[in-house]
Write a structure and sequence with these properties.
Elements lengths: L12 E3 L4 E9 L6 E11 L9 E4 L2 E4 L4 E6 L5 E6 L11 H13 L7 E2 L2 E9 L7 H18 L3 E14 L3 H10 L3 E8 L2 E9 L6 H9 L4 E11 L2 H18 L1
Parallel strand pairs: 1-8, 7-9
Antiparallel strand pairs: 1-10, 2-3, 3-9, 4-5, 6-7, 10-12, 10-13, 11-12
């Protein structure tokens, strides 16, 4: 019997770092009723307590915001989506706003960079177009989803990774080697303290780098070291790691086509 050992899947998250704007027109005509929906939206990073700007500027264009409604959605996977209705003059009927939200949420559940959950985004729908006959929910769902995806990719998108608090208990003579090993795992040393003949080393380490840690620690300390870890926070991954993750995801998508 053959056993395959695979590294556990890391629960990455995606977010954005600057505002961006996009619009998308979904149009389909195939005998009888067609489909038509056009959505113009702006995305910006959401930070708790930070007010929304009255105006955005992209290039030489200014976009003044007139807020008609704000909905906040705490996400199951952490963070928030804030959905802002800034439609003026009825360019999109209010009955289509939930469909646009649904399209955006679908893309949040499968982020544009690596298919990971997206979080902490404010989306402002400020304009669009309807057709008296061909506009329907599915048209605006698809227009909202595609406009959001395009804007997200222009908004300085970043991948976040789970970082853990790690406490390592080791005999003092192994301290230097253990510390070097953790730093080689992109660990940030937070402090040290003595406990009898042992030293307690505290560090923050990305979860991805902890997959082989148990074996490594045992090897370094001759089995006399131990550690505990607990979730700390999500942090931005370094650029080289992000590029690698995106390439891996794109290759995987090609394999599945």
């Amino acid at each position: 019997m053959m056993i395959n050992f695979e590294e556990p899947k890391i629960p990455y998250r995606e977010t954005i770092t600057k505002p961006a704007r996009a619009d998308y027109r979904h149009k389909k005509q195939s005998g009888g009723a067609g489909q038509f929906g056009e959505v113009h939206l702006i995305v910006e990073p959401y930070v708790e307590g930070k007010p929304m700007p009255d105006m955005f500027k992209f290039g030489n264009q200014e976009f003044k915001m007139t807020v008609k409604g704000v909905e906040e959605y705490p996400l199951e996977w952490g963070g928030k989506l804030v959905y802002v209705n800034s439609i003026v003059g009825g360019s999109i009927d209010a009955r289509f706003m939930p469909a646009i939200l649904k399209g955006i949420m679908q893309r949040m559940e499968q982020g544009p960079l690596t298919g990971s959950y997206a979080r902490d985004v404010r989306v402002i729908v400020y304009d669009g177009k309807m057709h008296p006959v061909d506009s329907n929910e599915i048209s605006f769902l698809l227009a909202g989803r595609n406009a959001f995806s395009a804007a997200f990719k222009e908004a300085g998108p970043k991948i976040l990774e789970p970082v853990y608090d790690v406490e390592v208990l080791v005999p003092a003579e192994y301290m230097g080697d253990v510390m070097s090993d953790l730093q080689g795992r992109r660990g940030m040393i937070m402090g040290m303290e003595s406990e009898g003949n042992y030293q307690v080393l505290k560090a923050k380490v990305p979860l991805k780098e902890m997959a082989t840690y148990s074996t490594s620690l045992s090897s370094i300390t001759g089995g006399s070291g131990s550690f505990v870890m607990s979730f700390s926070s999500y942090e931005l991954v370094p650029t080289d790691v992000q590029d690698k993750l995106i390439k891996e995801f794109e290759a995987q998508q090609k394999d599945e086509e």
